[in-house]
Amino acid sequence: xxEVRVRAAGRLIHLPCDRSLTFxxxxxxxxxxxxxxxGISRVAGSIExxxxxxxxxxxxxxxALHVVDETRLALPLPVNAExxxxxxxxxxxxxxxxxxxxxxxxxxxxVEPVGTQHTDTASRKSADPRxxxxxxxxxxxxxxxxxxxLASGYLRPHPDYDPRPLGYEDAAxxxxxxxxxxxxxIEQIRGQLTDAGVTGLDSVDARRALCEWSLAMxxxxxxxxxxxxxx
Length: 231
Known about the structure:
Helix content is 21%, strand content 25%. It is an alpha+beta fold and 231 residues long. It has 2 domains: 3-127, Tumour Suppressor Smad4, CATH 2.60.200; 133-227. The longest helix is centred in the last third of the chain and has 17 residues, at 179-195.
């Protein structure tokens, strides 16, 4: 596959393999999503070709990207942490949608391959050293349900996918418990992960980082929505 098409911000952009495309809030990006939305990184990511493969790359040190496959399931592409391998995902031979969640709006970039390309299974995985098994704790059923409620928007198929964590009271309402109970369970999970060496969860409000790390590491999945009581 020597070319991809990118649909973004009302434009259709053809990318041959000798070109790349950047996107973010900076006006200097090839696709400027919204210069006024501070929830979008200046350079959020890029679409680029390396060694025969097209990649979506996360350049942000603060915000995950969200990659939706043809089954409409989405997974966060982790942040680009200093000193770690570049956070990227192979595009392969199928169309994907990249979601960039700002504070004001969630923007979409649709990447459509032209031609065919063989990509092995290993190259489809994000390069993320946090995926070591030692970082993944065993959760009690109550803690898992609390995490699923908090991240429930992330677990629903696109276009119902909402890359923002719920508030504690709203997540607690899904489970029929008090907000203080849910907050306590989430803090217990955060403590487990911090003790296991996971970084980035020590901010005052670490809900977004916790949800996106848990999804990227497959700690929870869409199947876990069954843990929520029927609406």
